[in-house]
Specification:
Radius of gyration: 19 Å
Number of strands: 29
Strand order of the largest sheet: 3-6-9-12-15-18-21-24-27
Strand content: 25-35%
Mean pLDDT: 80
Low-confidence stretches: 1-43
Structural class: mainly beta
Order of helices and strands: EEEEEEEEEEEEEEEEEEEEEEEEEEEEE
Length: 205
């Protein structure tokens, strides 16, 4: 299917390889096929936001500000992506999740539930952030790591490998949590500590 270029109400440019549905309330300035419009489908892209390549935004999701969604990434449900955030690769942002600031979600990473990723934080590889988890500052979540529950990862902290950070745990400072580490309950890992790189270790306070 050939690429179609569509301009939505505020002249936001969206270039999609497959544009099957457009909200009929939008004013369209470029060519599209009216028979492809599905009245119960809504696309909400505004400001200078861009959605291109094979990326998709659907459901009640919104992409706005200067955000970019590209490659084969998807944003759906009631998710919000805004400011200068970037969603790329095969990444998915859904549920009530929010990604904003200069945050980057890449590869096959997933952010969902009511999780928030913002500032210059990054989530990539096959990492997952969900529940009410918050990732901020320049924190990085990658490989197969999961951060969920009410957990927070911030400052310059990193969570990677098959590590799990959950409950009300916090990882901050220059701390790194990797391997098969489990950080839970009200634990706070900070400073420059490396937690369990090769062996299973559970820390709960």
């Amino acid at each position: 299917m050939r690429t179609k270029k569509v301009f939505v109400s505020d002249e936001t440019s969206m270039v999609l390889e497959s544009m099957k549905n457009i909200d009929t309330t939008h004013v369209l300035y470029d060519s599209f096929y009216e028979q492809e419009v599905d009245e119960d489908f809504h696309v909400h892209v505004s400001g200078n936001a861009k959605v291109f390549h094979s990326a998709e935004v659907y459901g009640n999701a919104e992409v706005y500000g200067d955000a970019k969604v590209f490659d084969k990434a998807v944003v759906l449900d009631d998710a919000r992506v805004y400011d200068k955030a970037m969603i790329s690769g095969d990444a998915a942002v859904y549920g009530n999740a929010q990604v904003y600031g200069y945050a980057i979600i890449n590869d096959e990473a997933m952010v969902y539930g009511s999780a928030e990723v913002f500032d210059s934080a990054m989530v990539y590889d096959n990492a997952e952030v969900f529940g009410n988890a918050i990732i901020s500052d320049v924190a990085v979540i990658y490989v197969n790591a999961m951060v969920f529950g009410n957990a927070k990862v911030y400052d310059n902290a990193q969570v990677y490998g098959d590590a799990r950070v959950y409950d009300n745990a916090e990882v901050c400072g220059e701390a790194e949590v990797g391997g098969n580490a489990r950080v839970s309950h009200n634990a706070i890992i900070s400073g420059e500590g490396l937690v369990a790189w090769f062996r299973l270790k559970t820390i709960c306070y």
